[in-house]
Design brief:
Homodimer. This protein is α/β, with parallel strands linked by helices and 417 residues long. Helix content is 31%, strand content 22%. A hairpin with a 7-residue loop joins strand 19 and strand 20.
Length: 417
């Protein structure tokens, strides 16, 4: 059965939620394999907007089911809010979601800690304050709490008391909730999950099921924010590439395709290198047209021209086999569009970064392409062909609006010209 992974090919916010939602009705399972609630995946169902931060972007009107894998860090309160929002319009939908008990919990302490650390930094990273970094830090330092502790009262109290003691010693300050209050808080969340009839099932128990059915793996953020290979330290704390499917018991060799989602331009939230950032009025125009404000924080996104060296880098790092391009319509009406085709890195021309460090030194080398009045115009097809030739990856699908159904194939585009 078909296995497809969809990941961000840039710095996140490429429109993965809409793309996953579009494909989802053809897959039995939609699986989130990494990340937390620090990014929003926006979908539309009959013109109503839903923003999922943790839930896989299933189509509520289909029969597909969602699985939240062990590579995630889960803010349980946020998860319940998302489930209750969907339940209001689609009663019983919560029973179609499955949580791996091996996933880690994001605690309110982690959110406070996130802000403490950001205040302490001489150069802030631009964290969303959602507790993702501290939660992953606890995971790596063997202090974290997995979902399964919610079902063992004595273990939960023991782990929370030890964690609270360690954090108070580390920061020499109290947190809003004591370990006793945190125990009560988590017990209340567990009760709500049970009332919603959410399933707790490990990837081990799902081994045979997953291999006998179709799965759409939904990535978080983008390749350039990956902890290992993104623009470190201005990255997220988890895996953003297709290899993250290993947390659900899969190898990338088992994937039929890995689609990288890219915008027709480039955006970035927060601090960090951004070689093609555009500070002119054109940049402001694209930001407003594209509604480039974070779904999680509301922060204005930084905007720039399409970056081909970064896409070539993403292709290799995440084994991309195809592209889905979004927001070409945002550039409609521009007389010309600039594209970064190479970097000048300390005097050396590079078609692709050798390491993530090159992003910090890169100066963009541009070519100028004729603009287009609409995404059904020959010039947009030429733009896509230029991207394909320069990256070696074909663009199979085009998104031309925010709604799920506003998607077409490359052949659809050609037939409409």
């Amino acid at each position: 059965m078909r296995k497809l992974a969809v990941v961000g090919a840039q710095w996140g916010d490429e429109g993965k939620g809409k793309v996953v939602n579009y494909f989802s009705e053809n897959f039995e399972w939609i699986v989130r394999f990494s990340g937390g609630a620090n990014a929003g995946h926006t979908i539309f169902v009959e013109d109503k907007k839903y923003v999922n931060h943790l839930l896989p972007s299933i189509n509520p009107r289909s029969c597909s089911k969602g699985f939240l894998g062990a590579g995630m860090v889960i803010d349980v309160e946020q998860l319940i809010d998302e489930l209750e929002t969907l339940e209001a319009d689609f009663p019983g939908i919560s029973s179609r979601f499955y949580l791996d008990p091996e996933a880690f919990i994001v605690l309110p302490w982690h959110k406070e800690e996130d802000l403490f650390i950001e205040e302490m930094r001489e150069v802030p990273i631009g964290t969303t304050g959602k507790g993702i970094g501290p939660s992953y830090t606890d995971k790596v330092s063997r202090e974290g709490l997995k979902l399964y502790v919610l079902f063992d009262e004595s273990l939960l109290k023991e782990r929370l008391e030890a964690l609270y003691h360690m954090k108070r010693m580390k920061y020499n300050r109290d947190f809003t909730l004591s370990f006793g209050e945190m125990t009560t808080y988590l017990n209340g969340l567990k009760t709500k999950l049970e009332r919603l009839s959410v399933n707790f099932t490990s990837a081990v128990d799902m081994f045979r099921v997953f291999r006998s059915t179709s799965i759409l793996f939904e990535g978080a953020q983008g390749v350039l924010l990956d902890l290992d290979f993104g623009t470190y330290p201005f990255v997220t704390s988890g895996a953003c590439m297709a290899h993250g499917v290993s947390s659900v018991g899969f190898s990338t060799f088992e994937l039929d395709n890995v689609y990288g989602v890219l915008k027709a331009y480039t955006t970035r939230v927060g601090s960090g290198p951004f070689p093609t950032e555009e500070f002119s009025e054109v940049g402001n125009l694209v930001r407003e047209r594209g509604k480039e404000y974070g779904a999680t924080t509301g922060r204005a996104r930084r905007v720039g021209w399409l970056d081909l060296p970064a896409l070539r880098y993403a292709r290799i790092r995440s084994g991309l086999t195809g592209f889905v391009i979004t927001k070409g319509d945002v550039l409609n009406g521009l007389d010309e569009v600039k594209v970064c085709v190479a970097y000048d890195v300390e005097g050396a021309v590079k078609e692709m970064p050798s390491t993530s460090y090159d992003f910090f030194k890169a100066r963009p080398i541009y070519e100028t392409i004729s603009g287009w009045p609409s995404t059904d115009h020959i010039n947009f097809l030429k733009y896509m062909t230029f991207i394909e030739r320069e990256t070696g990856v074909e663009i199979d699908y085009i998104s031309y609006g925010p709604r799920t159904e506003e998607m077409k194939t490359r052949n659809d585009l050609i037939m409409n010209i």
